[in-house]
Amino acid sequence: MKRALVLLVLGSAVLLVAVDRTLTPLTPVRAAGASVYGAVESAFATATRAFGGQDRLRELERENAALRARLLSSGTRSVARAGVPDGHRGVAAHVVGFGRGQSVTIDAGVSSGVARDVTVLSTDGLVGKVTWAGPATASVSLITDAASSIGARMSGSGELGVVTGVPGEGLRLSLFDPNAPIEVGDEVVTLGSAGGRPYVAGVPIGTVAVVEGEAGAATRTALVRPAARLSALGLVAVIVPPPGK
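Structure tokens predicted for Cell shape-determining protein MreC (245 residues):
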């Protein structure tokens, strides 16, 4: 009986994903019945982890607990360096699906304090921002999305610029000063937004992989390799504001 129920949940989840990706987006459906859609996605993730065996489930639970603990201390590099505003907290979540374009679905939503336009990161660096939040799930736009634009700072020199998503290539950094020094291997971090939304300050975005053009040109740009492993996301942290903010 339990096996039949799990297979039914898996089948329903696969059908929803297929419709969302190939026929028509489920955004209206999510708006009207987000709790149902979210429950199916969460159940699908839970069933998938269950099929992986009890050992894998226990491992994920340990990782989840460890991530939560690191979020409350200085153990997580990206969180420790981030300028998290007072009252904000970290909510741990699993990536449970991939949406259209450069986006993912996580198994934490409004019931956990998750809201639109808040920072999502991994233990390695910036992942993206929340663009939609339902009761139990949320959609996250990755930093490599073409519409992504992030205020940035060079970790060493302090030079300011903007990082934009370049699908298929990663990220492109445009520095405000065309004469600013920049080298391969330089680290780029978030500049931060007012009130920490959508991005808190000091989170690693990535490292310079290719310097484009010469100093003194009209613009000073470089390709940046993301710090977070965006193609292999598992556990992430969502920086959520205090209630009512």
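The mean pLDDT is 77.
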